[in-house]
Amino acid sequence: MTPRAYVGKSRKTLPVSAFQRDKAWHKLFDNASNYQTVLATIFPDDAEYPTAGVGLQVGLEQYPEQWREHYEQQLADTLSKMRGRPFDTAPVVNTVHVFNWVLNHADCYRYLGTSIDDLKDRIDDFAAQHPVLQAWHSQCTWHPLFDHADDYHRTGYEENSVLNWFRGILQTDGGLNASKMSLQWCRNVLRMVTPHMWVCRALLQQVDRAALEAVAQVTETNDAFKIALREGQGLDDLELALLPVLPVERESTPGREPFMIPSRRDLLKALAGTPLLFAPQRPAAVTIVNGVVFGVETFSFHDLPPAGDLQLIPTIVKNLQTLGIAECEIMSGHIEPFASVMTGWWVQSRRSPDFARLREEARQWRLTVPMTYYRDIRRRFEDAGLRIYLYNVNFNETFTDAERDRTFEAARELGAEGFSSSTVLSEARRLVPFVQKHKMFVAMHNHNNLADPDQFATPASFETALAMSPLFYVTLDIGHFTAGNNDAVAFIRQHHDRIINIHVRDRKRNNGPNRPFGQGDTPIADVLRLIRDNRYPIRCYLEYEYGSFRPAVDEVKTCFDYCRRVLAS
Amino acid sequence: MTAMVGLKRVRWYVFLAAVVPIFTIGLGLDARQERDAGGFKAPTAALERGRAVYVLNHCHFCHGVDLTRATMGAANLSQSPFVGTDEDGNMIGPLVKAGLPNLQTAMPSYMELTAEEIVDLARYIHFLRQQARFRELSRLADSPAGDRTAGEAYFNGAANCRSCHSVTGDLAGIGLKYDTPKLRERLLRPGPTMPSEGVSPTAGQAAHLKLLENYTAANVQDLIAYLGASR
User: Fold this and answer.
1) Counting CB atoms within 10 angstroms of each CB, which of A385, A470, A560, A564 has the fewest?
2) Residue A507 contacts by C-beta under 8 Å, 6 or more apart in sequence?
């Protein structure tokens, strides 16, 4: 058996023995042919796929003189924005990126005569001999979001930043692109976090050393620092310690330009498959498990202080922090100082003799409360590294147009991307001009009332609304959908591009009760894996509604743990 | 019981001497009972079984841990006439098993509950309802005063008090024996304040508990006016 190596771009094939002896690698790089990356993959004779590979990448970008200043300024401005302190312009200095990989399987290690620990030792030896800017050792099946031989990709962190780092922050064409391989970038921005890694002194000096050493062992060798996650510590803890050097925005950016906001689809596609759980950013924090974004519907916290209580928002914030979940869909009853039932969404409540008076009080509050009220709530979330992604308002016929307008403005001030709404088809028709006017989506949430054709409960009811406006989406409650004897998996397969989020709960069929996750009839596992495997840009929001003697936050954690186990398998 | 009343309460204790029994009962319940996310633990094993059915089937999500804080538009079970007519689940049971699927806040179907669980659940709901109604009705103001004639009609009619009591017999002079707050308390809760393990209420106590669940505020004021006049 004579294994051969294939050298990417140059399309050169040679025996591994020759590959190992090749002294002319540098000749493979060719600026004229844009051969900036050389990726060699090793194929056993009888194998269709490579078992291992090694690569070199170097920025050969030669900026034209008239653009050089532009790129330097863009890099400096982006770093300034990111770090919250000024960066001077400096010539863009290229770096070399070296990487190797082995198919993470015992047979491959045996075939190559190596092991995980051996590879770890090799990267340590390399880093100690050649002071590195950054180096990482990890085990994962696939990391799709990193520099690739055939194309230029962003890392997961860069992809998830509030700013669109690819474009940079300047409102002109062109972006950082290869500038991210520059010395300036790599000395200030960590591109990856793994349990075993190296950073240069410039990066280390920007983090809290004590906080870092609490979660990882830090060892200096030859002016570079090895960071090894301590046993019992989680990768998310390490991420938080390294937050100051991750590509996150230092402060929120009021009035940011629309083009800087990654689209929902871009964002979630980029996240798919990222084997990390992290919530390090503000305001665009996100919690990802095996490529699936998680949040919480705040209805889950049923033991909160009553509406209007000063401790209500702090309790929600604390609960989310306890759970390690960065975003939520917040009920209007948790924002407004009166019960949501007062706003008429439950038809039965309108029969109360006090309803007209209470409804008018709620309306006047909405029309007169200053927007600083909502901004203050948003700030409380953002200060904690959290985000209100959806505002849950149950629009209904008792809303006036002025009230609808005002509610859209409130959602924007809360920082929400759009609404989730337990509404009805007749109200959806009234909402069409409002979503167009405010450029904000409304996602229709279903229950399982199959008798009332005005209700959202069946695929047909959703499809009717989706045809009304491109800004109408779906919040699919898979528990209610199952209780109404519908097929959640089939619906998601068919309508995944119009589903903003799902409410993850477990109910029995035939209008059956809520049950602890895994004990009902709802295909939670199938749905989560469907979203993971197809990289659908659908957020999964936990909704706890079965009974327990334990505090709600503890039960939500149990629900979250169930989902994590499902996604790990 | 007095030891459970905190120092901050002493001033109120003196000021509201006339309603001390009510106050100490209220404080005592909260202070001595253990709480969890499903509310206060029940005083007997049978009621605790009912609480487990109530909480583990998440009834408290919509109907509140003590029945009085119904959310999401759910029925207030402490006031619902439907619950007031129930006997050991004969009304509650069928509704709980069928659910109410066609309201916007659809009540689920609990087909899997056993007959024993339905009885336990119903008894626990009645227990919560009796506590809630006592708290509500014992705080009624003395004025406006009730209608003595209406009280007499209720005493002899719908409440059927006369089957056991008479203002010329066992209740003669009760208006002299108790002032209005005490009379109200005796009317609402003539028996023990809480169920005890192994002790079943007498038929009379059970009848009073049934009345407690179904009194309107006007019923109570009218009865006090009628009984208070027996001097």
Assistant:
1) A470
2) A479, A480, A482, A483, A513, A514, A515, A520, A521, A522, B108
The token duo for A249 is 């925005």
Nearest CB to B58; choose among A452, A547, A551: A547
The closest alpha carbon to B225, from B142, B162, B140, B156, belongs to: B142
CA distance A158 to chain B (A): 41
From chain A, the residues in CB contact with B99 under 8 A are 511
Kindly state the DSSP code that residue A9 receives in the 8-state scheme: T
Spatial distance between the Cα atoms of A406 and A438, rounded to a whole number of angstroms: 10
Minimum-distance CB partner of A346 among B55, B105, B108: B105
Nearest to B102 among A449, A483, A548 (CB): A449
Q: Rg of chain B over CA atoms, in angstroms?
A: 19
Structure ipTM: 0.76
Measure in Å the smallest separation between the Cα of B46 and chain A Cα atoms: 17
Within the 439-498 window of chain A, which residues sit less than 8 Å (CB to CB) from chain B?
447-452, 455, 483
Reference A508, options B72, B52, B112; nearest CA is B112
Asked if A44 and A105 count as a contact pair (C-beta separation under 8 A), the reply is no
**A41: which residues sit within 8 A by CB, 6+ positions away?**
A5, A6, A8, A50, A52, A53
Answer whether A512 touches B (CB < 8 Å): yes
Residue of A161, A164, A158, A169 lying closest to A73 (CA atoms): A169
pLDDT in tens, chain B (231 residues): 223 333 233 222 222 222 222 222 333 334 456 888 888 899 999 999 999 999 999 998 888 888 887 766 678 899 999 999 999 999 999 999 988 876 555 688 999 999 999 999 999 999 999 999 999 999 888 878 899 999 999 999 999 999 999 999 999 999 999 999 999 999 999 888 889 998 888 999 999 999 999 999 999 999 999 999 998
The answer to whether A351 contacts chain B (CB < 8 Å) is no
Between strands A327-331 and A292-297, the pairing is parallel
Residue pair B43/B195 in contact by the 8 Å Cβ criterion: yes
The H or E element that residue A137 is part of is strand A134-137
What letter represents residue A86's amino acid? P
Contact A345 B36 (CB under 8 A): no
Tokens 């490579």 correspond to what residue?
A50
Beta partners for residue B49, in sequence order: none
Confidence band (pLDDT; 50, 70, 90) for A567?
very high
Query: Does A513 contact B57 at a Cβ distance shorter than 8 Å?
Result: yes
- The predicted model gives A267-288 an average pLDDT of 42
Which residues contact residue B227 at a Cβ distance below 8 angstroms, ignoring those fewer than 6 apart?
Answer: B151, B155, B167, B171, B174, B175, B183, B187
Can you tell me the distance from the alpha carbon of A343 to that of A363, in angstroms, rounded to the nearest whole number? 8
**Among A347, A507, A547, beta carbon nearest to B104:** A347
pTM score above 0.80: no
The token duo for B109 is 């179907």
The Cα–Cα gap between B1 and B162 comes to: 34
Question: A62, A68 in Cβ contact below 8 A?
Answer: no
CA distance B40 to chain A (A): 10
Structure tokens at A91: 């010539």
Q: Between A263 and A106, whose confidence is greater?
A: A106
Cβ atoms of A50 and A43 closer than 8 Å = yes
Measured from the Cβ of residue A150, the count of other Cβ atoms closer than 10 Å reads 9
Residues from chain B contacting residue A511 (CB–CB below 8 Å): 99, 101, 106, 108-109
Helix (H, G, I), strand (E, B) or coil at A352: coil
Cα dist from A100 to A42, A135, A138, whole Å: 11, 11, 11
**Chain B contacts to A (CB-CB under 8 A):** 36-38, 54-61, 71-73, 99, 101-106, 108-111
Mapped onto helix, strand or coil, the DSSP state of residue A83 is helix
* Owner of token pair 């583990």: B56
